[in-house]
Write a structure and sequence with these properties.
The chain has helices spanning 32-36, 39-58, 63-83, 88-108, 116-134, 139-147, 158-188, 191-200, 203-219, 234-240, and strands at residues 5-6, 12-13. It has 241 residues and is an all-alpha fold. The longest helix has 31 residues, at 158-188.
């Protein structure tokens, strides 16, 4: 649970009354959803697993059919992305991930192993995000800093580092939820349930995490903080406090 931070003099920093709705009305409270997006990519990524499940069922539990349908859908999605100006590198990575998952399932002869790379990826993500918080390089700060072109300047602002760290725990939570659900369904060998879970725990969970982590992030920043785009230096942070 994220606890509010106290300002000098005992005033609680970031109470609900002092946090805007994240719409960026004052230029300092931009929502993470608007900065990072993510819903469209997460939605696209949920189609191939669903296609695998449908192909597997339609083909009479055939891994070959499931793999072929999943790859075909991934190719179509990639073509649409490229037609809309998407980056070729990102499209190739997405297609390669589906192909690798299909090859793993074909090699092991277990349809549920199509979902194994996604399960392992979430395990790795949960560990990386948790470790990043411990070593004071919270991944949310790294990602937002990259998107805003700040590189590592945000680390000079202790308030931002602290806020990014607390908000990053929600991302650890979302990856952990996926690991728990995907892991249980994979162990049970339930292909259909895994296909459904990939949809339920993709863009809806990403969007919820973006909104919640944005709220926590701004709740933990001082009221007079200039915003994510303007990290303060250590000296400025001391003077402000």
């Amino acid at each position: 649970m994220v606890m509010p931070r106290s300002k000098p003099g005992g005033e609680v920093c970031g109470t609900l009354e002092n946090v805007s709705d994240g719409s960026g009305g004052d230029g300092r409270r931009e929502s993470l959803a608007s900065l990072l997006g993510g819903r469209k990519g997460a939605l696209d990524a949920s189609f191939p697993p669903v296609a695998f499940g449908i192909g597997w069922l339609a083909g009479g539990s055939s891994i070959g059919w499931g793999a072929a349908v999943a790859i075909a859908v991934s190719v179509v999605i990639g073509a649409v992305r490229l037609a809309r100006g998407g980056r070729a590198g990102a499209v190739l990575v997405s297609l390669a991930a589906v192909v690798v998952a299909a090859l793993i399932a074909l090699y092991t002869g277990r349809a549920v192993d199509f979902f194994l790379p996604q399960l392992l990826a979430n395990v790795a993500s949960a560990l990386v995000w948790a470790i990043s918080i411990v070593v004071r390089w919270p991944m949310l700060g790294v990602v937002v800093g990259f998107v805003l072109g700040q590189k590592t300047r945000w680390r000079s602002d202790p308030a931002l580092v602290r806020a990014y760290a607390r908000a990053s725990w929600l991302w650890v939570g979302q990856y952990s939820v996926r690991v728990a659900v995907f892991g249980a369904l994979w162990a049970a060998g339930d292909v259909v349930a895994l296909s459904v879970a990939r949809v339920v725990l993709s863009w809806p969970l990403v969007l919820a995490t973006l909104v919640a982590s944005g709220w926590v992030l701004y709740r933990c920043l001082p009221d007079d903080h200039p915003g994510l785009r303007h990290p303060a230096s250590s000296l400025e942070a001391v003077e402000r406090s």
